[in-house]
Amino acid sequence: MFGKKEKPEKREGFIKRLRARINKGDSWLTYDLANLVPGGEIDADVLEDLESLLVMADVGVETTERIIADLQKRLARNELNDIEALREGLRQSLLDILKPVEVPLTISGTADTDGRFVILLVGVNGAGKTTTIGKLARKLQDDGHSVMLAAGDTFRAAAVEQLQVWGERNDVPVVAQQSGADPAAVIFDAWEAASARDTDVLLADTAGRLQSQTGLMDELAKMKRVVGRRDATAPHETMLVLDASQGQNALVQAEKFHDALGLTGITVTKLDGSAKGGILLAIADR
Question: pTM of the predicted model, to two decimals?
């Protein structure tokens, strides 16, 4: 008597397997590299597989080609003898791209403002600007600075209330107006309030907008001009907030916002929900 034939294990769909590979707990920089060279030998095929991993991590084609070209030179010079050498070579290639644009956020006032420092946060809808403001407020306070928040997002439902919650949590004042008010007027009022209270740092929230919405991008430029009338050097930091899961679209966002405003900094959010985030390398390279 024959037993029942066991059914072969069902293979997961391609998308599910790809998602599992990209978002698994071990990062692509550690676990995957070890699996690229099961025999321990670094060769052209290994670099080709690494190239695919970098592209999947949203590093971008052009930046990936730059990284692989550097590793190919190291391979030709017999510098990539084992997995540790490959990991170190990759690490150095990544640092070579990031180091030139690595500038710390330093709070320093100007003579015109008696120390007031303005940070304008911009980005598309849902990137995490308001939450980033809450975190920045806490960090700046921990560093010994007095902080005020400006509710420049006057369009999104409950945006002002959300910022006020962060204000209450951090025990910092929030300047706001009614829904639909001119965001530039809010920024102006917040500046006046910060001056009256001799506040060190003014964190200005803005409404999310797509980089293709010309009218709304012009509105941001207006907000920047209003602040600039009080201090020609303000805003002292124009920070773009990017969602790590946006992929190559984040590069387009960075380019368009930079063209409109002249970005000085970038915050990458939601890295806890993605094992990628390589788009930051593409932006730094560009």
Answer: 0.80
**Residue 130: which of 88, 83, 165 has the closest Cα?**
165
pLDDT in tens, 21-38: 445 444 544 446 767 776
pLDDT given at position 7: 44
Helices (H), 5-158: 14-22, 31-36, 44-56, 61-76, 83-98, 129-142
Question: Whose CA is closest to 90, among 35, 133, 29?
Answer: 29
Residue 244, amino acid: A
Residue 147, CA distances (Å) to 33, 112, 171, 269 in order: 44, 18, 9, 22
**Which candidate, 76, 90, 14, places its Cα nearest to that of 43?**
76
Tell me if residue 236 falls in helix, strand or coil.
coil
What pLDDT is stored for residue 278 in this prediction? Answer: 85
Stretches in the chain below the pLDDT threshold 70: 1-32, 34, 38-40, 109-115, 211-213, 274-276
pLDDT of residue 211: 64
- State the Cα–Cα distance between residues 280 and 247, nearest whole angstrom: 10
Query: 85-96: b or e for each residue (b if 16 or more CB lie within 10 Å)?
Result: ebeebbeebbee
Residue whose token pair is 């084992």: 82
